[in-house]
Design a protein that fits this description.
The structure is a single chain. The chain is of the alpha+beta class. It has two domains: about 170 residues, Chloramphenicol Acetyltransferase; about 210 residues, no CATH class. A hairpin with an 8-residue loop joins strand 6 and strand 7. Helix 5 packs parallel to helix 9, helix 7 packs across helix 8 and helix 11 packs antiparallel against helix 12. The two termini are about 15 Å apart. One of its GO terms (cellular component) is endoplasmic reticulum membrane. Its main location: membrane.
C-alpha cells in the first residue's frame, strides 16, 4: 500500500532506533568527500512522500534471531537497502552506501496491554495507521520491520514492513521478497516460480501467411485501434490535469493540501474463490479484483450517503500506478540472484499512470461488477497510456521540477 507521509501524531508509543552514523553525516549535508552512488531517479523523486506498507502474518511465534540472520544474509545486501539519500555538491540527491545495523530496523512497538488483550486486531490496525504520520529516519536506509509478537485472529505473530517507495516499485520489491524466501521442501533452494503468462492480445498474434489477407488486415487493424485508444487516453489525461473534474462523492478529497491520518482496513479473500470466479467468467484475477472493488465501493457509498436511488450509476476515477517491467522480469531477476548476479538486477521504480474509471452503482447480479471491471481493464490494455505518462512525468520533472510534476499527476487523485 502507498501511504502519504504526514505530520506526526504520536498516538502509540514505540521504541525508536538509534541513528546510523555514516561518512557523509546526516540528511541534507553535502557529501563532497564521499564516494556517491547513482542519482535518485526522477520516478523515485516523484514518490518521495509515499511509503509501501505490507502486513505479513506467521503461524508461529516470532523468532527474532532467525529473522535478524535472514535479513542480514539476504535483504541488507541489496543496493538501495544498504544506502541512504544524500545531497551532492550540485544539490542533486544520490544514493550513498552505508553500513547497515539490522537491529536499528527491527522495531518492537510498546502497545497498551489492555488494548492488545481487548482487541489485538484493532491494536495492530491502530498502530499501522499511526505509521502514516511518523517520518522515517533519513540517516539510515529507509526500511523498517515493526514486529508484533502476540496472536491476532489471522496469525500467531505479525510483521508490518514499511519501505520508502524510492527504494523500488512493487515488481522489484516482489522480486526481492521471492529471493529472500526458500522452498519448504528444500530450504537450500529458492521457491519454484509459476509458469510465464502468455500474451493473448491481437497485436501479439501475427498471422501466418497461409492465414490469408483478412487475417493480416485484422492484425494491422489492432494497431490502429491501439493508436486510437492511446490518443483518446492521452487527451483525457491532459483534460483531467487541466480542467476535467469528478463529481463530489465520499471518495473525493476536498483539500489536497490538508494532512490526514491514513488507515489500512483489509478484508480476507479466498484465492480459491477468486480463481473459481476467474475460471467461470473466463477473465483474469485482476478483472475479478477490480469487480470486487467496484462492489465494495458501491455498497460503501450507498450505505454511508443514505441515497435511495440505487439505479443511478456514478462514474469516478482513480489514478493507478502501473508497473512497466515486462512480465518476464520477475523470473529473469530471480535467475540472476540465483547465479549471484544481483548487482545486474534493475531495482528502483519503473512506473506509469493510468486513469481507471470506477462505476458506483448497485446490481442485482454480483457478477455484473466483474463484467464491467473486465470491460474497463480490457480497454486499458489496448492503449499505451501508461508508457506515455511515464515519459511525460520524467519530462515534466526535468523541465519544471519535482513540485510541479507531483501536483500535476496527483491533484486529481
Amino acid at each position: 500500500r502507498r501511504i502519504k507521509q504526514q505530520k506526526m501524531e504520536a498516538t502509540t508509543l514505540r521504541k525508536r532506533p538509534l541513528s546510523v552514523k555514516t561518512a557523509a553525516g546526516r540528511e541534507g549535508r553535502t557529501a563532497a568527500e564521499a564516494e556517491l552512488g547513482e542519482p535518485v531517479s526522477p520516478s523515485a523523486r516523484l514518490v518521495e512522500d509515499f511509503y509501501i506498507i505490507v502486513l505479513m502474518g506467521a503461524s508461529t511465534p516470532l523468532n527474532l534471531p532467525a529473522l535478524r540472520a535472514g535479513i542480514e544474509a539476504q535483504l541488507a545486501r541489496y543496493p538501495h537497502f544498504r544506502s541512504i539519500q544524500v545531497t551532492d555538491r550540485d544539490g542533486e540527491l544520490r544514493w550513498l552506501p552505508t553500513t547497515v545495523n539490522v537491529d536499528n530496523h527491527l522495531i518492537r512497538p510498546t502497545l497498551d496491554p489492555a488494548a492488545v488483550a481487548a482487541n489485538p486486531d484493532k491494536a495492530v490496525e491502530d498502530y499501522v495507521a499511526s505509521l502514516s504520520t511518523l517520518p522515517m529516519d533519513r540517516s539510515q536506509p529507509l526500511w523498517e520491520f515493526h514486529l508484533f509478537d502476540f496472536p491476532t485472529s489471522e496469525a500467531t505473530s505479525t510483521a508490518a514492513i514499511r519501505v520508502h517507495h524510492s527504494l523500488g516499485d512493487g515488481m522489484s520489491l516482489l522480486t526481492l521478497l521471492m529471493a529472500c524466501t526458500r522452498s519448504a521442501a528444500d530450504p537450500t533452494r529458492l521457491p519454484a516460480m509459476p509458469p510465464l503468462p502468455t500474451r493473448t492480445g491481437a497485436i501479439y498474434q501475427r498471422p501466418r501467411p497461409s492465414a490469408g489477407v483478412l487475417a493480416f488486415l485484422a492484425w494491422v487493424w489492432s494497431f490502429v485501434v491501439l493508436a486510437w485508444h492511446t490518443v483518446v487516453d492521452v487527451v483525457g489525461f491532459f483534460a483531467t490535469i487541466l480542467f476535467l473534474k469528478d463529481p463530489h462523492t465520499l471518495f473525493k478529497r476536498v483539500n489536497h493540501a490538508e494532512t490526514q491520518r491514513k488507515r489500512i482496513v483489509h478484508r480476507r479473500l479466498s484465492l480459491d474463490d477468486v480463481k473459481f470466479v476467474k475460471n467461470a467468467m473466463k477473465c483474469t484475477v485482476n478483472d475479478v479484483l477490480i469487480g470486487v472493488t467496484y462492489a465494495a465501493l458501491s455498497r460503501y457509498h450507498f450505505r454511508k450517503s443514505g441515497e435511495t436511488d440505487t439505479h443511478k450509476e456514478i462514474r469516478v476515477r482513480s489514478m493507478l500506478l502501473v508497473n512497466l517491467r515486462p512480465t518476464t522480469s520477475l523470473h529473469a531477476c530471480v535467475d540472476m540472484i540465483k547465479s549471484g548476479k544481483e548487482s545486474h538486477v534493475e531495482w528502483g521504480n519503473e512506473l506509469g499512470f493510468i486513469i481507471l474509471p470506477f462505476f458506483i452503482g448497485m446490481h442485482s447480479d454480483p457478477l455484473d461488477y466483474v463484467r464491467k471491471g473486465k470491460k474497463v481493464v480490457d480497454r486499458k490494455k489496448s492503449s499505451l497510456e501508461v508508457v506515455f505518462t511515464h515519459v511525460a512525468a520524467e519530462v515534466i520533472f526535468k523541465v519544471f521540477g519535482l513540485k510541479v510534476t507531483f501536483w500535476s499527476f496527483i491533484s486529481q487523485c
